[in-house]
């Protein structure tokens, strides 16, 4: 057999049937479900008189609409509440395990999947959520789907899809002090653009990627979709296997050994050929800050807001102009001169224990700037929250004037009560700086947790390497 | 799903790149548990001058006269002309639901985001990829010509301008078949239940931990 990429191996092992034109029936091992993109799918099943083929393959959690304060008081917004109650009812009706709002295991779907061992190497993982690419960090094929496909997977445990092309992004060398997986992700997007990965599955490789923790790899794969790729992935190594071992849904005993034997093969063969290769020098990456309304509108913290006059094309020039107008920024402003109103540390990109530790390390013994109206920390899950509290991180944040919240998607997309007001500027560890993403008229700058924490203390962006 | 065969539709040009699904349908409308009624909130933050909330009657809301979909000459448009990477961002199928509910049937752009592109086909919407230079030409012609309409023929896989110029486009055979016939593919997949069962049996032996 010719040399295979990791993606080839994952694809091949889940292929149920392939038509001559490449349309493939692909088997899905794990289906994660949340309240926003599933109600119409369950309704579709009911209307057609269908049942889930393998309810045990699906696990559900409410995360987008849940409040991050006063959890015991329930959801105040009746429309949000109905959506979560609808998920509860659907899971009860169709026999699907759900971690409900008051369960300590509840959290952002892309945090709890790996945390519970629901995500395992070699799996196909789907969810009605574009950031499903996160789970690729485990050497899994994971991608987001729409609601029609949520229904399709529930009914058939398969998807009709076509293989993407394969891209490898090689990041070689060592990351500098204060430079994180988030900065690597933003630097990659800055290089290839938000459409650079369209039609591709991306494997992240190279010594800098091997050096990342599982949390860091999740952050990186999470942002693959912001580069346009449905799926991002990293090969299996000891870190992967160590992370999975002992998780509640991970295999045990003889099955564990059998699984590990297979997982060890989940790497691209040495002579595997990719449709495209991208090379990055880890040492050249510095902390990143986005300045516009697309993740590709990004620069280094020591840089400046670009001048639309320098844009590479006419379409880009008008995009940059529109972005600067929306963001309330003048061309050539130094990034470190940009003051922030709010700081959000959380989201499926950066709400895991390592992220909270990195932010707390910056905040420790310091105070939130008086000019910053709100600095909030939203752990990715109840278990992350619990662990952070055991480590005393909550006390560090609270002593510095930050708010310590309950887990959920929160102000990444502001479907719950956490949002920006028009014109407010936010240093955010989330993944999208789109217009209105964090609240209508809100202005989002994407950064790493350490950079967000430093901005909260300084009141403006600062280079965390010198902080 | 509504079938798509042949369309002769008025074109509306949306001249910006990287239009994301948050812009197509903002998050507050995703709280709905229904599949219909999203058209009035399509591009809500660009289309209206006030802030929209779900359940609100949009007919009395102040419209942004500068936004292209509000301009009189584009009323009734069925073809949306867009720029690179249209539909990027979230997987929300509410985006194609809103476009379809608004009355759009075909979308033309130099590129689409993968998940969005896929979601369109599940909802009777045809996303068409044409070369950037051709899209540029269509933008110029649309803006210069009131009433500019394009003929979209899915069977023949081409787009024809009023001047008779024709551009071919690619579409996967399976997607084309489903769209031409208005078929949703769950029924088709269930016809392959024996193959799925055989896969599961084989896989259970190889990787039993996946079936606990």
Automatic annotation (TrEMBL), chain A:
<feature type="binding site">
    <location>
        <position position="412"/>
    </location>
    <ligand>
        <name>[4Fe-4S] cluster</name>
    </ligand>
</feature>
<dbReference type="GO" id="GO:0046872">
    <property type="term" value="F:metal ion binding"/>
</dbReference>
<keyword id="KW-0456">Lyase</keyword>
<keyword id="KW-0408">Iron</keyword>
<dbReference type="Pfam" id="PF00330">
    <property type="entry name" value="Aconitase"/>
</dbReference>
<comment type="similarity">
    <text>Belongs to the aconitase/IPM isomerase family. LeuC type 1 subfamily.</text>
</comment>
<dbReference type="InterPro" id="IPR015931">
    <property type="entry name" value="Acnase/IPM_dHydase_lsu_aba_1/3"/>
</dbReference>
<protein>
    <recommendedName>
        <fullName>3-isopropylmalate dehydratase large subunit</fullName>
        <ecNumber>4.2.1.33</ecNumber>
    </recommendedName>
</protein>
<dbReference type="InterPro" id="IPR018136">
    <property type="entry name" value="Aconitase_4Fe-4S_BS"/>
</dbReference>
<keyword id="KW-0432">Leucine biosynthesis</keyword>
<dbReference type="GO" id="GO:0051539">
    <property type="term" value="F:4 iron, 4 sulfur cluster binding"/>
</dbReference>
<dbReference type="GO" id="GO:0003861">
    <property type="term" value="F:3-isopropylmalate dehydratase activity"/>
</dbReference>
<feature type="domain" description="Aconitase/3-isopropylmalate dehydratase large subunit alpha/beta/alpha">
    <location>
        <begin position="8"/>
        <end position="459"/>
    </location>
</feature>
<dbReference type="InterPro" id="IPR033941">
    <property type="entry name" value="IPMI_cat"/>
</dbReference>
<dbReference type="GO" id="GO:0009098">
    <property type="term" value="P:L-leucine biosynthetic process"/>
</dbReference>
<feature type="binding site">
    <location>
        <position position="409"/>
    </location>
    <ligand>
        <name>[4Fe-4S] cluster</name>
    </ligand>
</feature>
<comment type="function">
    <text>Catalyzes the isomerization between 2-isopropylmalate and 3-isopropylmalate, via the formation of 2-isopropylmaleate.</text>
</comment>
<keyword id="KW-0004">4Fe-4S</keyword>
<dbReference type="InterPro" id="IPR036008">
    <property type="entry name" value="Aconitase_4Fe-4S_dom"/>
</dbReference>
<dbReference type="InterPro" id="IPR001030">
    <property type="entry name" value="Acoase/IPM_deHydtase_lsu_aba"/>
</dbReference>
<comment type="subunit">
    <text>Heterodimer of LeuC and LeuD.</text>
</comment>
<feature type="binding site">
    <location>
        <position position="348"/>
    </location>
    <ligand>
        <name>[4Fe-4S] cluster</name>
    </ligand>
</feature>
TrEMBL record, chain B:
<protein>
    <recommendedName>
        <fullName>3-isopropylmalate dehydratase small subunit</fullName>
        <ecNumber>4.2.1.33</ecNumber>
    </recommendedName>
</protein>
<comment type="pathway">
    <text>Amino-acid biosynthesis; L-leucine biosynthesis; L-leucine from 3-methyl-2-oxobutanoate: step 2/4.</text>
</comment>
<feature type="domain" description="Aconitase A/isopropylmalate dehydratase small subunit swivel">
    <location>
        <begin position="1"/>
        <end position="131"/>
    </location>
</feature>
<dbReference type="Pfam" id="PF00694">
    <property type="entry name" value="Aconitase_C"/>
</dbReference>
<keyword id="KW-0456">Lyase</keyword>
<dbReference type="InterPro" id="IPR033940">
    <property type="entry name" value="IPMI_Swivel"/>
</dbReference>
<comment type="similarity">
    <text>Belongs to the LeuD family. LeuD type 1 subfamily.</text>
</comment>
<keyword id="KW-0028">Amino-acid biosynthesis</keyword>
<dbReference type="GO" id="GO:0009316">
    <property type="term" value="C:3-isopropylmalate dehydratase complex"/>
</dbReference>
<dbReference type="InterPro" id="IPR004431">
    <property type="entry name" value="3-IsopropMal_deHydase_ssu"/>
</dbReference>
<dbReference type="InterPro" id="IPR015928">
    <property type="entry name" value="Aconitase/3IPM_dehydase_swvl"/>
</dbReference>
<comment type="subunit">
    <text>Heterodimer of LeuC and LeuD.</text>
</comment>
<keyword id="KW-0432">Leucine biosynthesis</keyword>
<dbReference type="GO" id="GO:0003861">
    <property type="term" value="F:3-isopropylmalate dehydratase activity"/>
</dbReference>
<dbReference type="GO" id="GO:0009098">
    <property type="term" value="P:L-leucine biosynthetic process"/>
</dbReference>
<comment type="function">
    <text>Catalyzes the isomerization between 2-isopropylmalate and 3-isopropylmalate, via the formation of 2-isopropylmaleate.</text>
</comment>
<dbReference type="InterPro" id="IPR050075">
    <property type="entry name" value="LeuD"/>
</dbReference>
<keyword id="KW-0100">Branched-chain amino acid biosynthesis</keyword>
<dbReference type="InterPro" id="IPR000573">
    <property type="entry name" value="AconitaseA/IPMdHydase_ssu_swvl"/>
</dbReference>
């Amino acid at each position: 057999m010719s040399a295979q990429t990791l993606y080839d191996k994952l694809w091949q092992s889940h292929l149920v049937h392939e038509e001559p034109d490449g349309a493939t029936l692909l088997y899905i091992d794990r289906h994660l479900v949340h309240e926003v993109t599933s109600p119409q799918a369950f309704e579709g099943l009911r209307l057609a008189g269908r049942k889930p083929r393998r309810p045990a393959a699906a696990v559900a959690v409410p995360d987008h609409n849940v409040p991050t304060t006063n959890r015991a008081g329930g959801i105040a917004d009746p429309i949000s509440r109905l959506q979560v109650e609808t998920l509860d009812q659907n899971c009860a009706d169709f026999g699907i395990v759900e971690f409900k709002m008051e369960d300590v295991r509840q959290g952002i779907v892309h945090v709890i999947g790996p945390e519970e061992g629901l995500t395992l190497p070699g799996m196909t993982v789907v969810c009605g959520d574009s950031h499903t690419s996160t789970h690729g960090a485990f050497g899994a094929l994971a991608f987001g789907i729409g609601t029609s496909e949520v229904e399709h997977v529930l009914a058939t445990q398969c998807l009709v899809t076509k293989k993407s092309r394969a891209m490898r992004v090689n990041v070689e060398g060592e990351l500098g002090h204060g430079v994180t997986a988030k900065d690597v992700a933003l630097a990659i997007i800055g290089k290839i653009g938000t459409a650079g990965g369209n039609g591709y599955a991306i494997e992240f490789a190279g010594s800098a990627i091997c050096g990342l923790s599982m949390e860091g790899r999740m952050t990186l794969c999470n942002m693959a979709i912001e580069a346009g790729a449905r799926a991002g992935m990293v090969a299996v190594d000891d870190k992967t296997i160590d992370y999975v071992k002992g998780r509640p849904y991970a295999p045990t005993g003889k099955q564990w050994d059998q699984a590990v034997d297979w997982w060890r093969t989940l790497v691209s063969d040495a002579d595997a050929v990719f449709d495209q290769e991208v090379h990055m020098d880890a040492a050249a990456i510095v902390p990143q800050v986005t300045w516009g309304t697309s993740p590709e509108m990004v620069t280094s913290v020591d840089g400046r807001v670009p001048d639309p006059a320098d844009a590479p094309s006419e379409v880009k020039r008008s995009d940059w102009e529109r972005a600067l107008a929306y963001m309330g920024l003048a061309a050539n402003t130094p990034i470190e001169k940009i003051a922030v109103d709010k700081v959000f540390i959380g989201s499926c990109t950066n709400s895991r224990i390592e992220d909270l530790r990195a932010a707390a390390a910056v905040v420790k013994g310091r105070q939130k700037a008086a000019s910053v109206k709100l600095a909030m920390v939203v752990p990715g899950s109840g278990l992350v929250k619990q662990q952070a509290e055991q480590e005393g991180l909550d006390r560090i944040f609270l002593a510095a004037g930050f708010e310590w919240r309950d887990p959920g998607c929160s102000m990444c997309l502001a479907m719950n009560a956490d949002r920006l007001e028009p014109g407010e500027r936010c240093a955010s560890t989330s993944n999208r700086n789109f217009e209105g993403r964090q609240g209508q008229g809100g202005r989002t700058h994407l950064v790493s947790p350490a950079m967000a924490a430093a901005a909260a203390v300084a009141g403006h962006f600062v280079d965390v390497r010198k902080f | 799903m509504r079938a798509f065969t042949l369309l002769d539709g008025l074109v509306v040009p949306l001249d910006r790149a990287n239009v994301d699904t948050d812009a197509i349908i903002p998050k507050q409308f995703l709280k709905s548990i229904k599949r219909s009624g999203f058209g009035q909130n399509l591009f809500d933050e660009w289309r209206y001058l006030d802030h929209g909330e779900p359940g609100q009657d949009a007919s009395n809301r102040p419209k942004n006269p500068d936004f292209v979909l509000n301009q009189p000459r584009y009323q009734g448009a069925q073809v949306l002309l867009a720029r690179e990477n249209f539909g990027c961002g979230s997987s929300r199928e509410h985006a194609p639901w809103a476009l379809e509910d608004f009355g759009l049937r075909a979308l033309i752009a130099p590129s689409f985001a993968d998940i969005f592109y896929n979601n369109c086909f599940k909802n009777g919407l045809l996303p068409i990829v044409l070369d950037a230079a051709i899209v540029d030409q269509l933008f110029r012609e649309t803006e210069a010509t009131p009433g500019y309409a394009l003929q979209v023929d899915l069977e023949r896989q081409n787009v024809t301008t009023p001047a008779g110029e024709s551009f071919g486009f690619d579409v996967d055979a399976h997607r084309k078949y489903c769209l031409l016939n208005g078929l949703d593919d769950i029924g088709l997949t269930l016809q392959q239940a024996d193959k799925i069962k055989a896969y599961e049996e084989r896989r259970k032996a190889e990787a039993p931990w996946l079936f606990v």
